[in-house]
Amino acid sequence: MPRQIEFYFDFISPYGWFAAEQIGDFARRFDREVSWRPILLGITVLKAMGLPPLMSTPLKKDYIAADVARCARYWGLRLSPPTGVQLSPLAAARIILWVSSERPDCTEQLTLALYRRYWADGVDISTPDAVADVACALGFSRADILSVLANPQIKDRLAKSVDQAIGRGIFGSPFFIVDGEAFWGTDRLPMMAEWLVRGGW
Amino acid sequence: MPRQIEFYFDFISPYGWFAAEQIGDFARRFDREVSWRPILLGITVLKAMGLPPLMSTPLKKDYIAADVARCARYWGLRLSPPTGVQLSPLAAARIILWVSSERPDCTEQLTLALYRRYWADGVDISTPDAVADVACALGFSRADILSVLANPQIKDRLAKSVDQAIGRGIFGSPFFIVDGEAFWGTDRLPMMAEWLVRGGW
């Protein structure tokens, strides 16, 4: 089994999307397997850090808004999220947690489809129905998806998974761990590549 | 006169140091001139943002400590700041503000000497005497330096300069503005280079 690149991301995070678009090819280049790990920044992680949401932080929020648009253009991605929507990433995160254990070969495709639906197509993905729409287009059964999303065990698994991530020091999206080494941010992918080539320094 | 790269940095910021070590050559490569602009993150900017100091932020502080060490090794810089010192960057920032207008050709050299004194040699540079030691080694007169650092107009100029930076949306170290475009972080230098080559995108 190939060694892993742990990839932590939140659907509310456009930088998480930019990384999701790249990490599959990145991992294949190094004969690695991506472990897709949804987290909940706004709901859980920032509380643990005592920080306000990024887009409520004076000065930084204006830079981030401009930078996200610039990065999207740089990577050739259409950026057109719905306006006036406060995305809840819970349903999307839960389904990715489930699919990563039940249908792991579909995880990359479904993660990208959910990210693109929201950030490129401008469709809210907050509800189980909206998540099921995306999954059905990839061949999943709507009944299966809705049943998973109604399952309290899945809700519990996500909460525990996010707590574990916090316990391991994960605090951002995207966040990568490879061979025990942590990298935060899409713009650290080149350094992570060099780390893998050189085996650290 | 070559066009400028505005370079904002705080002496308390090791990432500011890493950028300072690179920005001179970076600018020369693009026939640009660096405008060296000391700011005061801890004292002023974070208050404007309502944020705690980086190294008091749970989760992030552990990552940053490891990342700073990793970046120093990556760039071949000895990282050995004094232990148990709470650096005040005021004197260093004031002298750089002064030298950048009075002896601009010395600004890069003095900025690097101050950064290295603290971050590589492990000597506190909080006091006017400590800053004068560094400047004297580069040929400045101790009396001139101490006189500048006792001058209330210089203190006032720095305060105004930092306020102006905040007014322009600068919130981190390093922070760059080139042709009106803002870039935050040492790891954005490659993107900034591409921006200059392509004239934006």
Fold and architecture overview:
The structure is a homodimer of 201-residue chains. With 201 residues, chain A is of the alpha+beta class. Chain A is built from nine helices and four strands; from the N terminus they run βαβαααααααββα. The first copy, chain A, has a four-stranded mixed beta sheet, with helices on both faces. In chain A, helix 4 runs antiparallel to helix 5 (107-119) and helix 6 runs antiparallel to helix 7. The model of chain A has no long low-confidence stretch (mean pLDDT 94). The A-B interface holds A 45, 48-52, 57-60, 62-63, 66-67, 70, 73-74, 166, 169-172, 182, 184-185, 187-188, 190-191, 201 and B 45, 48-52, 57-60, 62-63, 66-67, 70, 73-74, 166, 169-172, 182, 184-185, 187-188, 190-191, 201.
State the gist of this model:
The structure is a homodimer of 201-residue chains. In chain A, 55% of the residues lie in helices and 10% in strands.
> Would you count the extended β strands of chain A for me?
4
Percent of residues in helices of chain A comes to 40-55%
Distance between the termini of chain A: 25 Å
Uncertain residue segments of chain A: none
- Averaging pLDDT over every residue of chain A, what do you get? 94
Succession of helices and strands of chain A: EHEHHHHHHHEEH
Total number of helices of chain A: 9
Structural class of chain A: alpha+beta
Largest interface: A-B, 30 and 30 residues
Quaternary arrangement of the chains shown? Answer: homodimer
- The largest beta-sheet of chain A arranges its strands as 2-1-3-4
Largest sheet of chain A: 4 strands, mixed
Rg of chain A over CA atoms, rounded to whole Å, is 16 Å
Shape of chain A: globular
